[in-house]
Amino acid sequence: MVKWLNSYIARSSFASLVLFLFLLLGSIVFAETPTPGPSPTSTPTPTPESTSSSSNICTSVQECADQKLDCSKCIEYLASKKSEASGKAKTLSSEIAVTNSQIKLTEARIRATEQKIKELQKDIGIAKGKIKGLESVIDRATRLLIERIAAVYQVGRLEPWQIFLTARNIDDVFSRLKYLRIVQIYDKIQVYAAEQAKTDYQNQKEIFEDKEGEAEALSKKLDDYNNQLGQEKTSKNVLLTATRNDESRYQRLIAQAQAEVAIAFGGGTETFIRDVSQGESIGTVISGASGCSTGTHLHFETHKGSSIEDPNNYLSSKSVTYKPNEAEAGSINPRGPYPWPLVDPIFITQGYGSTPYAQSGAYNGNPHFGIDMYSGSPSSVKAIQSGKLYGGTYANCRLGPLLYAKVKHSDGLESLYLHIIPN
Fold first, then answer.
1. Strand ranges (DSSP E) for 159-203?
2. Alpha-carbon distance 38 to 43, whole Å?
């Protein structure tokens, strides 16, 4: 009896020891291999900027290149110079200085934008390279996981408790648990590698898309700057052509522009003459220079109520010739119901709106409110619609008063004909 009891106690103690080792080693196997979480990848390293670097000097603008300014500093410098030139008395030389400053400022902005696009293209290239590498990593990690899953499926998954039941002795238990732990760590590493690669891929894809979007926006801005530069150079050429580099002629043009603006806002003195019918002669274009005019032409405007209307909405479609050319005169697009005030052939010297000449600052920031034209035929001016004819004058001109006609139509429209002698 005593012998049997001692044997039972010994077997019970061994069973308790085995159970204790199973729980302890099982917890060690699972607890000592923490699963790391995937972390985001970094963005491409931006190209370093340095004001002293010769590659960043704004070489497209000579003034900035001489002072070794980068394009950012160049823009600030030229904006200051333009502001300084704009504050001076309005002379031909000061206006040309303002125009030149604006051209240089736009050139500096173009150069700065080109540099930013170049830097973005480098970042896009880096992101593309990382995406390509990560695609290979994902493919490899996926392949290894598939192989591991297939192997586990074929041989079955070994649990720690099975080791105790099949082990030959305690050394065999520890040896098998060791290899089980190695396999579990390997499995977790493969899962982590796949998750990390997927996270990195998504991050790089977002970086790539952001950089591409930014580059597209800058490319559009670059196109806008190039168009602006072309317009500014055209405005300068128009100014030089119109003034013939003559200060007195420039001042007459400024006076003409100011007079046209003043009349548009009701600055003239008007007297009723008579009722007229559509197509009836209402005056004659003045030949040569006259009050606030540097040469023979009709300035035609349309008003309705208190607003200045686009004459293109009222004059009918017609083939015209631009002088000196469409780019400098500013194009027109007549699409209205009424006949023109002059007979064919008609020559357009300035269109309506933000024309190159208006962009030169001739109208103090205002657009050109009418259409300037002349005819190769007799200079008789006709009413575009029936109404009440008024003769008008504007006195503040160097070569005498500016003469004009106004016809008030029954629908509230008013048509104005400047630089003519009303009859």
1. none
2. 16
pTM for the model: 0.49
Which residues make beta-bridge pairs with 388? Answer: 275, 408
Please state, in angstroms and as integers, the Cα–Cα distance from residue 186 to each residue in 144, 183, 193, 194, following that order: 11, 5, 10, 13
Please answer whether residues 323 and 349 qualify as being in contact, where contact means their C-beta atoms are separated by less than 8 angstroms.
yes
Q: With contact defined as beta carbons under 8 Å apart, do 323 and 366 qualify? A: no
DSSP state of 353: B
Report how far residue 417's alpha carbon sits from residue 6's, in angstroms, rounded to the nearest whole number.
131
Domain spans, the chain: 1-31, 54-243, 250-422
pLDDT at 250: 66
Residue 17 pLDDT > 60: no
Mean pLDDT of the chain: 75
Task: Indicate the SS3 state at residue 347.
Answer: strand
Residue 349 is classified by DSSP as: E
Residues 78 and 105: beta-carbon distance below 8 Å: yes
- Supply the DSSP symbol for 364: T
Tokens found for residue 346: 């008609």
Q: Which of the following CATH numbers is that of domain 54-243: 1.10.287, 3.40.1000, 1.10.10, 1.10.3470? A: 1.10.287
Within 244-281, residue ranges assigned H as helices are: 247-264
Cα–Cα distance between 264 and 244 in angstroms, integer? 27
- pLDDT tens column, 244-280: 666 666 666 666 666 666 676 567 788 999 999 999 9
Maximal C-alpha separation, the chain: 149
Question: Which residues partner with 285 through β-bridges?
Answer: 420
Judge contact between 256 and 394, C-beta under 8 A: no
